[in-house]
Design goal:
7 helices
Amino acid sequence: MRTLEELYRAYRDDVYRYLYSLTRDAAQAEDLLSETFLQALQNAASYRGEAGEKTWLFGIARNLWLRALRKRRPTVSFDDLLGLYVEDTLAETAARRALLDRVRTLLAARDARTRRVVALRVRGVPYEEIAKELGISAGSARVIDHRARQWLKETLRKEELL
């Protein structure tokens, strides 16, 4: 697992947006963001890697939000909290699926080599192995991957999906 500083840099904005979507309160989202990374630091040894780091952080954030919600409104029933949890999870899953579908569509429009490099990187194949398979240099594989990522991010931002 990466260091807490690396995790913070990589996922701070995503976790903040997630918390803000739950709380609709910037100050509370910031407080919960700090608590999320503090709890991640305290529980880093228990991270088993079964879920991705981002998923793990989102789980911590969600649990902290639910705890804060119960403290503010102790009369909230478990069923109400469960409903919020399910709605949130379903909405998040639907949004993620829509985004992945769009990424697949965008990648389908790229050349075969770019699609292959991206597919292999998604599977975690090192650049050196990609280079051997495609008959290119490892540097070329890195450049192709980098350009594809940048293009995807730029396109998705223009479409307001990121």
